[in-house]
Amino acid sequence: MKKIIECVPNFSEGVDLNIIKQITDEMEAVEGVLLLDVDPGKATNRTVVTIVGEPEQVVEAAFRGIRKAATLIDMSKHKGEHPRMGTTDVCPFIPVSGISMEETAEWAQVLAKRVGEELAIPVYLYEHAQANKSRSNLSVIRAGEYEGFFDKIKLPEWKPDFGPQTFPVKSGATVIGARDFLIAYNVNLNTKSVRLANSVAFDVREAGRVKREGNPITGKIVKDAEGNEVRIPGTLKACKAIGWYIEEYGIAQISMNLTNYNITSVHQAFDEVSKSASKRGMRVTGSELVGLIPLQALLDAGKHYLKLQNRSVGVSEAELIQIAVKSMGLDELAPFDPAKKIIEYKLKNNADSKLVQMKLTEFADETASESPAPGGGSISAYCGSLGISLGTMVANLSAGKRGWEDQIVYFSEWAEKGQSLKDRLLKLVDEDTHAFNQIMAGFGLPKQTDEEKAARLHAIEEATKNACEVPFQVMQLSFESLALLKAMIEKGNPNSITDAGVGVLCVKTAVRGAYFNVLVNANGLKDKAWANEMIQKAKDLLAKNHLEADQLLAIVEQALAN
After folding, report:
1. Residue-level pLDDT at 39
2. Which of 172, 250, 402, 555 could form a disulfide with 86 if both were Cys (CB 3.0 to 4.6 A apart)?
């Protein structure tokens, strides 16, 4: 899985659209970075920009944006309603997929160090990127704002984490850090009453509601011994919520910000609002996402609702998304397009999955054409994906078998593992062809000077090593599939034992076919020590795979003979 992070820099300009455009153009110029949103505000004189991509590219784009903002915006002339302390007031990184918060915080520190050293802008770290928790809160850091920081920065306890301990008049300072992903999510109600909607919002939001004596609406507010209002906490952590009426739709909604979907998921929020609304005589009719959502959040929701239906969760990614959309009514107010609403899908480059997106006939025709790729490596990966798909099918059939209800969890877990292996093998179908093309690209490099010849040889060598590693991954993943197939042959629906047997045959073909590709590419390497080690690993795995596969095939044949 690719490592993907989101970055949401807030620039202190919300009026001059030309300045904003120059800043975002700098950021968009970085290859691999996708500009998702630009939200200028005139009253705040502030623009919130959202970009996503792989960490290194996002760091580069954020740096370019901060640098451009420092040249175009003059903080000594800035006026606006929103608190601010610099041309780039705050720049948070948010982990989206394939990356931990800890690693995301490290990338934030990389950017902070670069901004401090190369741009001479004072930088403060915040939230997960800040080790000193006494100064990790954004509002605490920003207290005093631009005007007050000329004196504040001189205090020993407010020495910047990076950059000079003097406050630049034009650029001010900036705050860079890492925080959790925020999902803006609205749940629709079959009422126009804002009062009722707010009652539900108070039930679920973490802050809850103020405690009152007697009547929960008009009663006297209860206070503690220190005179502070006593609050009744809501049922959802990391959730902010309010009720409002949307004239466009003619309904009331619960508008929520889920500040950490790992603590409170979208489906938990939907279920909890449904429960509260039902108690108050209302019904939830659907919901909507504002902005984008990480793929994992919808996959988790799909699995949650399948489990409630007592069904296997080992289904395809597309089916999990559909279950989530239909269960939460995400398409009630407008069509839900995964390609536009899921961050990872927005970033997907269809050219990277050209082969697996083809129809079966197109794939066969492409393979049969005079082009050398796709070849045996891609076909081996595809054979492996078919083998594990057959095993996954048996797992799902077994999970749904009448009378086997007590084994649903067992077979569902196997099916889920099978889906993961299948998806990884399918990616290798295209990666094997990419690896071959990289070798061909190396041969196409110039070779006039000694330097060019050396660079060409190095590129070919590295591409050839990659062309060994890709089929070796096919061998490893296909071999890993045998554990699932073994479980299905021994414990799965006996009516499908032949399907599992054919799956084993596919795996056996995939491993041997990928082994051929390892050999042919390794034999062309100059680094013989690396090549010999790779060949030996492949030989050992081939022997192990064939031994286990043949044992499973013997069990299948014996079962059929009986």
Report:
1. 82
2. 172
Whose tokens are 């740096």? That residue is 63
pTM: 0.79
Q: Which helix (H) or strand (E) holds 357?
A: none
CB 179 within 8 A of CB 261: no
Distance CA 178, CA 5 (A): 10
Q: How far apart are CA 87 and CA 116, in angstroms?
A: 14
pLDDT interval class at 535 (50, 70, 90): very high
Can you list the domains of the chain with their CATH numbers?
Answer: 4-178 (3.30.990.10), 183-347 (3.30.70.670), 350-561 (1.20.120.680)
Round to whole Å and give the CA distance between 472 and 514.
Answer: 7
SS3 126: strand
Amino acid letter, residue 57: Q
Residue 410, token pair as written in the block = 């067992």
- Look up residue 1 and give its DSSP letter: -
Which residues are designated catalytic?
82, 432
Burial of 360 (0-12, 13-18, 19+ CB in 10 A): exposed
Neighbouring CB atoms inside 10 A of 181's CB total 22
DSSP-assigned letter for residue 222: P
Distance separating alpha carbons of residues 496 and 480, to the nearest angstrom = 20
Helices (H), 280-407: 295-308, 317-328, 338-341, 343-347, 360-368, 376-399
Going from the C-alpha of 345 to that of each of 216, 298, 348, 506, the distances in angstroms are 45, 12, 5, 30
* Core vs surface per residue 472-488: b (16+ CB within 10 A) or e: bbbbbbbbbbbebbbbb
- Digit-coded pLDDT (tens) for 344-356: 888 776 667 789 9
